[in-house]
Amino acid sequence: MGPVLILLGPPGAGKGTQARMLEEDFGLIQLSTGDLLRAAVAAGTEAGVKAKAVMEAGQLVSDAIVLAVLKDRMAEPDVAKGIILDGFPRTAGQAAALDGLLAESGGKVTAAISLEVEDEAMVERVSGRYTCASCGEGYHDQFKQPAKAGTCDKCGGTGFKRRADDNAETVRARLQAYHAETAPLIAHYDRLSVLERVPAMGSITGIRARLAEIVGRVAA
Ligand code: ADP
Ligand code: ZN
Question: Which of 21, 151, 173 is nearest to 84 (CA)?
Answer without folding.
Answer: 21
